[in-house]
Design a protein that fits this description.
By secondary structure, the protein is an alpha/beta fold. The chain folds into three domains: 178 residues, HUPs (Rossmann fold, 3-Layer(aba) Sandwich); 60 residues, SH3 type barrels (Roll); 77 residues, Elongation Factor Tu (Ef-tu), domain 3 (Beta Barrel). The protein contains nine helices and 17 strands. The strands form three sheets. A six-stranded antiparallel β-barrel has the order 12-15-14-13-16-17. Strands 3-2-1-4-7 form a five-stranded parallel β-sheet, sandwiched between helices.
Amino acid sequence: MKTALLLSGGVDSSVALALLKEMGHDVTAFYLKIWLQDEFTSLGDCPWEEDIKFCEAVTKKLGVPFEVLPMQNEYWDSVVSYTIDEIKSGRTPNPDIFCNSLIKFGKFFDKIDTSYAKVATGHYAGVEEINGRFLLKVTPDPVKDQTYFLSYLSQEQLSRALFPISNLSKNEVRKIAAKYDLATQDKKDSQGICFLGQIKFKDFIRFHLGEQPGDIVDFDTGKVMGQHNGYYYYTIGQRSGLGLSGGPWFVVQKDVVDNVIYISREYDSIDKERDRFRVTGFNWFAGAPPNDQTGLKVKVRHGPNYYNCTLEMENEVSGTVTIDTPDKGIAPGQFAVFYRNGYCLGGSVIFSI
């Protein structure tokens, strides 16, 4: 079928492209050129030119058409503005989730020819259709599995999504890249937020929000221990970058109104209630929350770690999650994504802890 593949310049999407070509798809590769790469080069080295060179080398090797698609405005409207707003409000954003649902499987589809039946990526995830609904499957590599970042796709988006490396581990992907002698076979994995590239998140925040000096206060004694440059530079549970002696110190609370950061040495004692949190903004791939919660698990961040959990729905739009082991880093704005029996059931937003 006619397929559009999103090529990032990394090994995963390169191998996805090779597999599609091998399967006989009529495939065109697209590189999404995003806003930050042109506008804010003063913050650091942006890798987009290098990425495009890798993309060109891979597509030439495989004999696949390649296009660079500017999407700066779409990224700003859908992803970057959300990130800035969340940080300013004292919450913890996850722009990669919106990058997938609103851009890669959203605005991108509006940009390309309607004859493309599928949008393929190098995500570690799978899609399965059961009884007319499309479900998101986890992959064999628990560390690389990226279903967490895809938890807000719609049914229409899942029906069009294609993940050629869904059944592969990272080691297997590397071997296939070597088999095809792809230029990306030894390229290191990218890290960090989708639109920042190699730019440091702290520099991005400083560029948009500047500095706002405030007090660092000992939660237990009320004593001012130092100064910070803005509450938005800190996250709950953070223990590095505080610049204080006598630690370890943990960030345990942020006062957004008065711009105060509260710290403590006794993080565990303050954080007793972090085995429960409230969620909203549900996206269920089955169309509704699970009736049977046997085996229900949740992730509160990307990675291999799940918590056994229960979800008590308060009404149609909110509920309370209880996890079996307290977590030290749960904060409003994070996403809680639910799983059972090898499937990602959907996602939610943490709004209260």
